[in-house]
Design goal:
Layout (H helix, E strand, L loop, with lengths): L11 H18 L16 H4 L2 H20 L3 H14 L2 E3 L9 E6 L3 E6 L10 E6 L4 E12 L2 E9 L11 E9 L5 E6 L8 E3 L8 H5 L3 H4 L6 E5 L11 H14 L9 E7 L4 E3 L5 E4 L2 H16 L7 E6 L16 H12 L6 H9 L2 E5 L2 E2 L22 E3 L15 H13 L5 E3 L13 H5 L4 E6 L1 E2 L7 E4 H17 L1
Parallel strand pairs: 1-2, 4-14, 4-15, 15-19, 16-20, 17-18
Antiparallel strand pairs: 2-3, 3-14, 5-6, 5-11, 6-10, 7-8, 7-9, 7-11, 9-10, 12-13, 13-21, 17-19
The protein binds manganese (II) ion (2 copies).
One manganese (II) ion (MN) binds next to helix 8.
């Protein structure tokens, strides 16, 4: 057993038998009416109910997923990894026209990606569509970010998405950058991920002196965004008489390492993300800890499911969108007309005239899952959850009928008929899943991209794995949930 494998329970064989018996009695007696010594199915989690060969599958899937998380810390990297898998499987660029391979894809600005796989049925009858977002909460460097103060050179950052700011201080962070130059070249660079090399960090104040600046303040005021400055350098550069020698030191490093000049930062996207790989977590190693599981957990599960269904009945769409964490606006976001272009190209490749009416009809006849992680109940903070309606870690992907805040404002709630379809599809494939809502009413709230697809009249529901410490630099998922989420998406692609 490698150090990456989940430790078995001492009573593993017995447990697995019990899992089988429970599953059988579940089937015989209907939902929740297990007899005798068997616990009711809803008290048995995926580990209880999985067979030994499934546990092996869970570990293999978790290993691949952790590699993906480690390599996909930005929306651009998520895009290029997904695109790489599609191309390897014979998918070709729809924008080039002509005959498509196993399927086609359409990319936009290196961040928004759609893929289409033909089915036995015409795309005119609609698609089975899964959409997930490749962006995660992070800090971006400002266009003009380098400054010096006192004895140090620092970099100014800008928040992206819903951060708890204090979680980003006093920890190793890395820099993943993409610079577009005036001559058309692009430079891809990263710093802080070499296990033997330096990392970056954002400093915090010591507790001895934090009373006025932090301790006596409200949490949101105690950590002003403008104080999230990245420690960059301390070795001066240039003539001893010259000015700004620490700033010069930073620019010399940018130039020497990556050929970047100060003004190139204005056309760069430089993201500050937690340093280091995704890792197994827990005494039994049954969790996965890593940055960006919202929403790369769903991205990876969607990709694996998309590629696993080879001859689908209905045509499939995979959609990787950007900017979900900041409201889904912008040229690479779910609120654009991209899915219409993709549908038009899919129709055309199937020999259907892709007129306005045909595109809208095909989208209205589509079935969609908005694949996004869900807040798992944290026993330490259970007061924010309505436990009857909240997702429990190890009990499989959640199906979230509506998000939004209190009173369902802003939610594109899935209708009863569509919920019935999802139940039938997941149950039909033996998926262990749970119905859930995001927390109690009036505790806060949140949304997803579901509404952007509901806009076309298609059935759509949120579904994804429960996660702990969501939006933190170290999000936690269960290996079992991660794998079952892939199973759920595969069932949806195959049977919805
Ligand atoms: Mn999300
Ligand atoms: Mn999020």
């Amino acid at each position: 057993m490698s150090r990456y494998t989940t430790a078995p329970c001492g009573r593993e064989d017995k447990d697995n038998k019990r899992g089988k018996a429970a599953a059988a009695s579940d089937k015989a007696a209907g939902k929740g009416k297990g007899k005798g010594k068997d616990a009711a199915p809803e008290t048995l989690n995926i580990w209880d109910r999985s067979k030994p060969e499934e546990r092996e599958e869970i570990e293999l899937y978790a290993r691949d997923y952790m590699d993906f998380l480690t390599e996909a810390k930005t929306e651009r990297k998520a895009y290029s990894l997904v695109l790489g898998h599609l191309e390897k499987e014979g998918f070709t660029d729809l924008a080039n026209g002509g005959k498509i391979g196993r399927g086609g894809y359409l990319g936009h600005f290196g961040k928004l990606l759609g893929a289409y796989a033909p089915g036995r049925l015409s795309p005119a009858g609609g698609f089975n569509l899964i959409v997930a977002h490749g962006d995660s909460p992070r800090l971006d460097l400002k266009p003009r970010c380098v400054y010096e103060e006192g004895s140090l050179a620092l970099l100014k950052s800008n928040m992206y998405g819903g951060l708890k700011k204090f979680q980003w201080l006093a920890r190793p962070v890395a820099l993943w950058g993409f610079a577009a130059l005036k001559d058309g070249r692009a430079v891809d660079f990263r710093f802080g991920e070499d296990p033997a090399g330096p990392v970056l960090t954002i400093t915090d104040i010591l507790p001895h002196l934090d009373r006025k600046v932090q301790r006596d303040k409200r949490l949101v005021d105690a950590f002003p965004a403008e104080k999230l400055n990245v420690l960059a350098a301390s070795v001066p550069c240039g003539e001893r008489e010259s000015k700004h020698r620490l700033k010069q030191a930073v620019f010399k490093i940018l130039e020497d390492r990556w050929g970047l000049k100060e003004e190139d930062l204005i056309s760069s996207e430089i993201e500050i993300v937690p340093a280091g790989p995704a890792v197994p977590v827990g005494l039994d190693g049954s969790f996965i800890g890593g940055y960006g599981q919202d929403d790369r957990l769903s991205v990876y599960a969607m990709l694996r499911a998309f590629l696993a269904v080879e001859k689908p009945e209905r045509p499939l769409i995979l959609l990787l969108v950007d900017r979900e964490e900041i409201g889904s606006r912008g040229a690479t976001a779910a609120a654009t007309r991209f899915v219409e272009r993709l549908a038009a190209l899919a129709l055309e490749s199937a020999g259907v005239e892709p007129g306005y009416r045909a595109v809208l009809d095909s989208l209205a006849r589509s079935h969609a899952v908005s694949a996004d992680v869900e807040a798992g109940v944290d026993p330490t903070f259970k007061e924010v959850s309505d436990e009857m309606n909240s997702a429990k870690v190890t009990f499989g992907p959640a199906v979230v009928r509506y998000t939004g805040g209190a009173a369902k404002y802003g939610a594109s709630e899935a209708g009863a008929e569509y919920m019935a379809k999802i139940r039938a599809v997941y149950d039909g494939d033996g998926v262990i899943w749970q119905s859930s809502l995001l927390g109690k009413q009036e505790e806060g709230g949140g949304g997803t991209v579901a509404m952007n697809f509901a806009d076309f009249g298609m059935g759509v529901v949120d579904s994804g794995a429960p996660v702990l410490s969501m939006h933190s630099p170290f999000e936690i998922s269960s290996k079992a949930d991660v794998w079952m989420t892939y199973r759920a998406y595969r069932a949806f692609y195959r049977d919805a």
